[in-house]
Amino acid sequence: MFYQDPDFVKTVQEIIEFLGTFAFAISGIRHAASRHFDWFGGFVCGVAVAIGGGTIRDVMLGVRPFWMTSPMYMICTALAQVFVIVFAKYLKKLDNAWFAFDTLGLALFTIAGLQKTLACGHPFWVAIIMGCITGAAGGVIRDILLNKVPVIFHKEIYAMASIAGGILYWVMIWLNVNVGITAIATFLLICLIRFLAVKYHISLPILHSEEQNP
Fold it and tell me: pTM for this one?
């Protein structure tokens, strides 16, 4: 069995989902602010990015969407909006603040997706896919609402960082490493890949259409 202490894993998962919700909501609200959305529009973008990926995951797993089990996820999003409004001047000085929160959300929600999928009894290859969906799909919904090309399709490595984290999680669990340590290592790897990818402009090869070929 991968999980020797279900209660501990559940607690870790809930903490990760709350933190991920807060981080992703800030990212979505910051993007909305850059497009001069009003407060309601900002909240909608925050909710979309915070619960979008997890909702798709839970529907595919055939379970009740996580945000419907507790009002805390909506409260987290509301607190994120208050945070952005109150500290707008300070965040404005930090050009990459949205990137940092987006990266934290990606890492945290990838782990939550992995753990929930495994808890539902699915194999690890499914868990890695669900971890990626949980971490990246919310950002796709956000970018569509903002009428932008989703980040995962054209910029520095994003979804692949999630997949790499999922593979590390798989290996460490296979080696019977403590779940808490595994989660921390996975979190750090995903963040490291994203930060390095952005700093050094690392991305996957671009597809070219036939018209572009000589």
Answer: 0.85
CA-atom Rg of the chain in angstroms: 17
As a whole number of angstroms, the distance between CA 46 and CA 182 comes to: 28
For 100-156, what is each residue's pLDDT tens digit? Answer: 878 888 998 999 999 999 999 999 999 999 999 999 999 899 889 989 888 888 777
DSSP labels for 129-162? Answer: HHHHHHHHHHHHHHHHHTT---GGGTSSS-HHHH
User: At residue 96, does pLDDT exceed 70?
Assistant: no
Nearest CA to 106 out of 154, 50, 55, 183 is that of 50
**Angle separating helix axes 179-199 and 159-174, nearest 10 degrees:** 150
Amino acid found at 91: L
